[in-house]
């Protein structure tokens, strides 16, 4: 018996000319074939025993002017998130140091901002970036929209990666967010890429989008001039008070389809099993790793919602014989290396 998957050379070169139909055919293929193929591609480009461990910290929480329907930090929704102004540099560096001690190689600082403004708070964030860089961790930020000069300042301070998610397809985007456009998002990603910062961009499933929307988002990512170095796949965490509070949780098979398709079409990217792990069993997470995920967020909190925590993850790594990936492994897409230097303080 042969597989009824459309033929595709698993040892293929990187491609940026995927059609939406080709990606749809992969996404919709029989799930066991899909996992097998993704696992094969994964083993050609990555060590399957290695999983990148990233720690997230919300450095400025809540009170955001945007209307992202999924987000507990939008000021207009009545959620239990407490607004907190930008943290002090010292407390952020202490958190980064704890994250490093517990095995994280990447530290990602998130701010509930629409965009970065050239003010004292941005100067503080630049100091945080310098400090985390000096600890020998990959430092990442997710601060909203950036201009080209702000991206350059972050790069000069030692920023390794910038997270800015497309979240969903261009067609569905307007149903989820009205306060900025898909093109705004793509423009910031262009500034990040231009500054030579590693690009982290993915999305969320379980927001009421169709399978075609999921394929559409993957198509946009895989046809960027260069693939993102990291692709986070989040399952919606439905939070009380947000417009999406009553969304049904996605099944593991939907996560597996997204992860496996991302792995096949962007073979060199780190595919991150992101929000939603707290609801998953060891077996479900193992399926996601088999399907090509090779990165997670660690710690007992994401930005504002729960995450499994270090003890559970230590157990997970032991059970599955996986080990944390070291910092600064060349994660270039193969199309243009992200040149990175550790900057002495
Ligand atoms: N304000 C910045 C921005 O929107 O780019 C950075 C922080 S924002 C919270 C980062 C990402 O978190 C969002 O793009 C979204 O993908 C993810 N996110 C937020 N709330 C979520 C939720 N309830 N479930 C899953 N992912 C979520
Ligand atoms: C990403 O793709 N997922 C993370 C990170 N990038 C910033 C955020 C998940 C947030 C989940 C909801 C919360 O904890 O507030
Ligand atoms: Fe604000 Fe980011 Fe949340 Fe949107 S996702 S409301 S921009 S913090």
TrEMBL record:
Binding positions ([2Fe-2S] cluster): 108, 140, 200, 272
Record-listed E.C. numbers: 2.8.1.6
PROSITE patterns: RADICAL_SAM
Cofactor(s) this protein cannot do without: [2Fe-2S] cluster; [4Fe-4S] cluster
GO biological process: biotin biosynthetic process
Residues given in the record as [4Fe-4S] cluster binding sites: 64, 68, 71
Keyword S-adenosyl-L-methionine: yes
Cofactor, free-text remark: Binds 1 [2Fe-2S] cluster. The cluster is coordinated with 3 cysteines and 1 arginine.
Keywords: 2Fe-2S, 4Fe-4S, Biotin biosynthesis, Iron, Iron-sulfur, Metal-binding, S-adenosyl-L-methionine, Transferase
Matches recorded under SUPFAM superfamilies: Radical SAM enzymes
Pathway field: Cofactor biosynthesis; biotin biosynthesis; biotin from 7,8-diaminononanoate: step 2/2
Broad class of enzyme this protein falls into: transferase
Domain Radical SAM core: 49-268
Pfam families tied to this protein: BATS, Radical_SAM
Catalyzed reaction equations: (4R,5S)-dethiobiotin + (sulfur carrier)-SH + 2 reduced [2Fe-2S]-[ferredoxin] + 2 S-adenosyl-L-methionine = (sulfur carrier)-H + biotin + 2 5'-deoxyadenosine + 2 L-methionine + 2 oxidized [2Fe-2S]-[ferredoxin]
Molecular functions per Gene Ontology: 2 iron, 2 sulfur cluster binding; 4 iron, 4 sulfur cluster binding; biotin synthase activity; iron ion binding
Family note: Belongs to the radical SAM superfamily. Biotin synthase family.
Role description: Catalyzes the conversion of dethiobiotin (DTB) to biotin by the insertion of a sulfur atom into dethiobiotin via a radical-based mechanism.
Subunit-level organization: Homodimer.
PANTHER family in UniProt: BIOTIN SYNTHASE (PTHR22976), BIOTIN SYNTHASE, MITOCHONDRIAL (PTHR22976:SF2)
Identification of the protein by name: Biotin synthase
Organism name: Rudanella paleaurantiibacter
Gene that this sequence comes from: bioB
């Amino acid at each position: 018996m042969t597989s009824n998957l459309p033929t595709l050379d698993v040892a293929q070169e990187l491609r940026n000319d995927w059609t939406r139909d080709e990606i749809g055919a992969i996404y919709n293929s029989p799930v066991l074939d899909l996992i097998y193929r993704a696992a094969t591609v994964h083993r050609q480009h990555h060590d399957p025993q290695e999983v990148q461990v990233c720690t997230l910290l919300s450095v400025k929480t809540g009170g955001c002017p945007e209307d992202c329907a999924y987000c507990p930090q939008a000021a207009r929704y009545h959620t239990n998130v407490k607004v907190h102004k930008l943290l002090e540099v010292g407390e952020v560096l202490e958190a980064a140091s704890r994250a490093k001690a517990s095995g994280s190689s990447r530290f990602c600082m998130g701010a509930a901002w629409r965009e970065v403004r050239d003010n004292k708070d941005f100067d503080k964030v630049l100091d945080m970036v310098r400090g985390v860089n000096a600890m020998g961790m990959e430092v990442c930020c997710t601060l909203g929209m950036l201009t080209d000069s702000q991206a350059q300042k972050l790069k000069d301070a030692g920023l390794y990666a910038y997270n800015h998610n497309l979240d969903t397809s261009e067609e569905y985007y307007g149903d989820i967010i009205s306060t900025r456009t898909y093109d705004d998002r793509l423009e910031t990603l262009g500034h990040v890429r231009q500054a030579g910062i590693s690009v982290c961009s993915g999305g969320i499933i379980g927001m009421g989008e169709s399978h075609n929307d999921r394929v559409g988002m993957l198509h946009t990512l895989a046809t960027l001039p260069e693939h993102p170095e990291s692709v986070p796949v989040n399952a919606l965490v439905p939070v009380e008070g947000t417009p999406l509070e009553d969304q049904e949780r996605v099944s593991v098979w939907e996560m597996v389809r997204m992860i496996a398709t991302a792995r096949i079409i962007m073979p060199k990217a780190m595919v991150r099993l992101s929000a939603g792990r707290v609801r998953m069993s060891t077996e479900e997470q193992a399926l996601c790793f088999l399907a090509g995920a090779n990165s997670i967020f660690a710690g007992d909190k994401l930005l504002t919602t729960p995450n499994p925590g270090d003890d559970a993850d230590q157990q997970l790594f032991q059970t599955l014989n996986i080990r944390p990936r070291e910092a600064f492994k060349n994660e270039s897409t193969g199309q243009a290396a992200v040149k990175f230097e550790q900057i002495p303080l």
